[in-house]
Amino acid sequence: xxxxxxxxxxxxxxxxxxxxxxxxxxxxxxxSDASIExxxxxxxxxxxxxxxxxxxxxxxxxxxxxxxxxxxxxxxSHQISPNGYPMKKVKGKKSIMAxxxxxxxxxxxxxxxxxxxxxxxxxxxxxxxxxxIGTHMNNxxxxxERDRIRKGSLINTAQLTENKVKEIKNKLKYYEYGxxxxxxxxxxxxxxxxxxxxxxxxxKHVKIDD
Length: 210
What we know:
Blueprint: H1 7-16, H2 22-29, H3 33-42, E1 59-62, E2 72-75, E3 87-90, E4 93-96, H4 97-106, E5 115-118, E6 131-134, H5 136-145, H6 162-172, H7 179-186, H8 191-199
Antiparallel strand pairs: 1-2, 3-4, 5-6
Helix pairs in contact: 7-8
């Protein structure tokens, strides 16, 4: 469920932003690192210390997946982008930390048009042995194969939950004229949302009772 940020929460975040790491902040407020960055941006809260420019890189070891022989190294020293990636200034420009780590460790430049993929699916990870070069299409295929693409109530803008969509789908089995408008009013969503559920263009993963 998406966190509702109260004024007191924002004030605490503003007070602690230069004294606590993103990891500490996200654990305290029970949100992702990316959510912390979104709130800072939305409220115009600026850091006094530029965490992109730090030289020392620190991390904690976290075992995320059992199919890799080494744990994830979750970066704790640098700022996290709104997309959830640790960032670092390289030659005066902001860069995803994983790109910097890969090139430094393996002493090879990432070809133009290629990106870094995480074998562990952990955006915070900077373990060089969890990183590999690939194309944007490779990344999309990884997302599909590993079921990483957010869907349903995991999407921040979702107005319904899986349980409510299941209820709607079960009611639509006995469709009659005017039902779409009636369900939209009942669940306090737009008619378009109900229509998309009805025709199967959204919430495909929610199965109905036989």
